[in-house]
Amino acid sequence: MGFSHEWERIYQGNKQINQWPFTDVVSYVMRYVRPKPSGFRVLELGCGSGPNIPFFLSLDFEYYGIEGSSTIIEELKIKFDQLKENLHCGDFTKEIPFSGKFDIIVDRSALTHNSTEAIRACLKKVYELLKPGGFYIGIDWFSTMHSDYQMGKSIEDVYTRGAYTEGQFSQIGRVHFSDQSHLLELFHQFKIKILEHKTSQAVIPQKDEKQFAVWNLVAVKP
User: Fold this and answer.
1) Considering only CA atoms, which of 191, 198, 178, 185 is closest in space to residue 218?
2) Are 32 and 193 a contacting pair, CB within 8 Å?
3) Phi, psi torsion values for 103, nearest 5 degrees
4) In the prediction, which pLDDT does 208 show?
5) What pairs with residue 106 in β-bridges?
6) Distances from the Cα of 219 to the Cα of 58, 139, 173, 178, angstroms
7) Are 176 and 198 in contact (CB under 8 A)?
8) What pLDDT does 74 receive?
9) Nearest to 79 by CA among 113, 103, 49
10) pLDDT, position 128
11) What is the predicted pLDDT for the residue at 152?
């Protein structure tokens, strides 16, 4: 299975509406890709409520986005009227219906809500859609060091869990977790330029024993 339909209900309920570009998306694009002033084509997988769109438009990128929720895509087409032909509702693990090659494909915590099989299928399409030397930027891929990896129920494969009833993954369908060897296997066709593991834990006002852990990566098509 691909797209988790729980996300359609989330957007229908006006939840998970982010207004500002994600810091690591901005940082990784500017630090590691160093894009030219204009002419770059970018595809965002799981564009959600579109928080990263203004950032890419500010760079004069030709922007395309695909998202599984019809509710949020229709809202984005109204908000970004100039992009309505470039925004598509669909399951990007099964089909990415845009022609031409891309300089950058960005995924901020989108692919990581799929099974291993679906992720492999999507990365194959990503590889085909990138220009030689093109970049895939993955932000906030959940790590097996994340405390919630031990919660929920195992579904479909050892790295994919679901049926969360509490915490940040409650009611959002499947969640995929990765360790280093799993990520390297998933991206075996690519050259990994950057792979970073980030962890955080709340201390004040009340220490939280849970650990938040994610991977960020930059992969290049040779």
Assistant:
1) 191
2) yes
3) -80, -35
4) 83
5) 44, 137
6) 23, 11, 27, 16
7) no
8) 94
9) 49
10) 98
11) 85
Dist CA 79 CA 94 (whole Å): 27
Give me the amino acid identity at 60.
D
| Host H or E run for residue 119 | helix 116-129
pTM above 0.90, yes or no: yes
Place of tokens 């695909």: 66
What is the per-residue pLDDT for 108?
A: 97
Q: What is the pLDDT of residue 14?
A: 60
Helix (H, G, I), strand (E, B) or coil at 151: coil
Low-confidence ranges of the chain (pLDDT < 70): 1-5, 7, 12-18, 37
Residue 15 has a pLDDT of 61
β-pairing verdict for 62-67 and 41-45: parallel
Q: Given phi > 0 = left and psi -120 to 50 = alpha, else beta, which region is 58?
A: alpha
Cβ atoms 141, 214 nearer than 8 A: yes
Return the pLDDT at 87: 98
Pair of tokens at residue 99: 């022609």
- Could you give the 3-state DSSP secondary structure of residue 102? strand
How far lies 164's CA from each of 97, 152, 155, 172, in Å?
32, 5, 12, 8
